[in-house]
Amino acid sequence: MGPNVKKWLLAQSLAIAIVFVTGLIIVSLQSEQFNAKNCFQRVVTSLSENWFGQNCRGGIDWKFHRVDELTMEQIITYVEWANSSSCRLSHDFGGNVIFTAGVDGQKAVCLDPAVRPERASGAWPPVTKKKFNECLVYSFGIKNEWSFDEAMEALGCRVYAFDPSMNRTRHDHTSKIHFYDLGLSDRDEQRVDDQEKNWTMKSLDSIYHNLLGHQGKIIDYLKIDIERDEWIVLPQILSSGMMDRVRQMGVEIHLLSPTGNNTLDEIRQNIKTLKSLEDYGLVRFDSKFNPWSNDLKIIDNVEWWGYDAYELVWYNSKLARKGHEM
Ligand SMILES: *[C@@H]1O[C@H](CO)[C@@H](O)[C@H](O)[C@H]1NC(C)=O
Ligand SMILES: *[C@@H]1O[C@H](CO)[C@@H](O)[C@H](O)[C@H]1NC(C)=O
Ligand SMILES: *[C@@H]1O[C@H](CO)[C@@H](O)[C@H](O)[C@H]1NC(C)=O
Ligand SMILES: *[C@@H]1O[C@H](CO)[C@@H](O)[C@H](O)[C@H]1NC(C)=O
């Protein structure tokens, strides 16, 4: 082997080493970028990467994104996201197992000491001499399915249940579950149609102040499942100041109208409503799609196949009890 060949070999090994190290640097830089806002971009660049995007959960900063520019894929990524590490003890309450199909009707409740419902059983440290308030639940949309309400009663809560569509008048379902035949809206009104429908509707602040006289109380859990009326109700709950009285909230949201045409702009307006809740201080710790809501819909005259309904659950960080880290 002549000296020239040796030099050539050395040069070649050096070149290989340089390429290798450069490659390593590029790869590590990229994984460095694979978080926060870049995570979002990657998640939405292709649908197949959407699954991959699960790694990103908890690390997405949605403040970087203008709602007016979101695509439908980005909207889905947004609603499917949850800050799941923000509640360590999240449990589903209620629900029925449906033979071979799944579970329906359950709602996540956060039992972390800072935000758990008052007097929740299993509370630690145990509530001792300290005077405590009775746990209070408002539950809108029952449809004769009481499993969540009964589970919350078992947890120690008094439950006010509302549904104008059940053809049942005011009664007590159990000693601690009180039923009212009225619906949740952004104002007090009668909702009448040309069939038999004549529903009494009330706003949350009207129910809380006038109907139930709950001034000063905290609603430990507000459940809302009212078939698209959530989009008129949620902004009013925020603007009326009632959000300050709600410790946890579980809402079934409906992205798409079952009949007629959806526009992307309309859907973006609803996403703005969700973002305004989170900008206010709600922390979303759970998101589940409703497996029975997979359907063909139309958005801006284009067919869209996907889930329409999601169960989103938040706790109100403004009402987190002091002295407990979340
Ligand atoms: C998730 O929730 C925690 C509070 O538990 C908060 O500090 C964090 O900023 C949240 N993350 C995102 C991405 O919203
Ligand atoms: C509602 O209930 C009443 C009896 O309580 C019954 O006469 C009526 O037919 C019911 N209406 C509907 C729409 O089911
Ligand atoms: C609807 O119900 C309200 C209150 O019960 C009643 O005052 C009103 O007359 C009813 N309207 C119709 C159209 O039946
Ligand atoms: C949607 O709107 C278009 C025109 O804007 C109309 O041609 C079509 O029939 C509508 N579809 C439904 C299901 O309403």
UniProtKB/TrEMBL annotation:
Organism: Daphnia sinensis
Protein name: Methyltransferase domain-containing protein
Keyword Transmembrane helix set for record: yes
Residue stretches spanning the membrane: 9-29
InterPro entries per UniProt: Methyltranfer_dom, METTL24
Keywords of this entry: Membrane, Transmembrane, Transmembrane helix
Domain Methyltransferase: 122-292
